[in-house]
Amino acid sequence: MPDDPLVSIPGGSVAVxxxxxxxxxxxxxxxxxxxxxxxxxSMWKDFPAAVAEATGCPTLVYDRLGHGKSSLSPEPSPRAxxxxxxxxxxxxxxxxxxxxxxxxxxxxxxxxxxGTIALLHAGKFPVRAVIxxxxxxxxxxxxxxxxx
Length: 148
Description:
Number of strands: 6
Strand order of the largest sheet: 1-2-4-3-5-6
Shape: globular
Strand content: 15-25%
Order of helices and strands: EEEHEHEHEH
Structural class: alpha/beta
């Protein structure tokens, strides 16, 4: 598991942050945190590190392209309709490969957009588990109005 604060993936560089509890095995289950639509690594604060200590599992948090300290997204604004699929099927697997993590050895922990990406990824690739909070599983008028 590399310790570099930036990993290269197709389309740019992604900022990553590891938390490794004392005595954690590098081959252990990895908890991967996926932030919300306007979030980044720093929005998680010390939560991933606290979870790492409580579980004994290493955690990885990353900034999606265009967020936090990652390079700008090559996507046009507004985002394409298949944004979530691109993140789940292309970007997340590239991040896992760059971090030397097998998809089958992860628990994806996603909030909002991150939860949606986690669910889509798990529908196509083997993962150990998904924990999600407020994932978007359908589009409702209240959310559309709120975003407008």
